[in-house]
Give the backbone structure.
Amino acid sequence: MNVYSAGWGSVYGRDYTFSGNVGDKKWIMLLARSAVKLPLNGQMLSFPQNTAILFDEKSSAQFGADDEILVCDWLCFDTEGDSEFIESLSLEPGKPVRFSDWEFISQLIRNIQEEFYSLNSRRIKMMENLLKTLLIKLSDAGMPGDNSTQAIDPHYTSLAELREKIYRNPQMKWNVDTMAAYVNMSRSYFQHLYREVFGVSCMTDVISGKIEKAKEILSETSCTVSQVSAMCGYDNEEHFMRQFKKLVGMTPTAYRKKN
């Protein structure tokens, strides 16, 4: 998935109305922090603050202020390369949904916007992870009465923070017990919720974070493979090389030559 633009705390006047096809395989996600006018069943209707809506590539996106001003957070993105993930969700483009925990949704969009404008070499991966969390949350909002969703909701923020820390600090000695303690959960409950929320195991993310960092160092520095291994938290150079080749399809040396 790719993020094309993002806005957090955007403010528009009472006469503002957006209308147009998303097109070009792009999607728009809007979180209104004030009263908003949105389309439903062919009419533009008023909805209260903290209402969100998703417009997919087939939608005609429409929204506008329903008060003196419209305050909103928004994203424009595509789903290229993640069709299987999108199909696994219960997303309903064009259907307004209301969030009780809108602060979390707003913070996710803010984090995506910060990554969008950052110089972080792993900004694309970070935005993808945050966007997936956002879409999972949006999918859950469309399934009222789902007990598993209710059980996960209180932990979204802490799990998202942990995942971000994992990717930002691949040199740390992450293990299941350390991660479970970080979010104050039992080992088994943590592993279950992590996979439920992100679709992968916590250790898969740990390894992915290390390999992404290794690719960055190999591309941008002249550090030896042994040094790269240590900088990514590996105690054993051979173990690092095996994991790198398994995930990237080539050795670290071959990757450096290619890039």
In short: The beta strands are 2-13, 17-21, 26-32, 36-40, 43-47, 51-55, 60-65, 69-78, 97-98. Residues 143-152 have pLDDT under 50 and may be disordered. The radius of gyration is 20 Å.
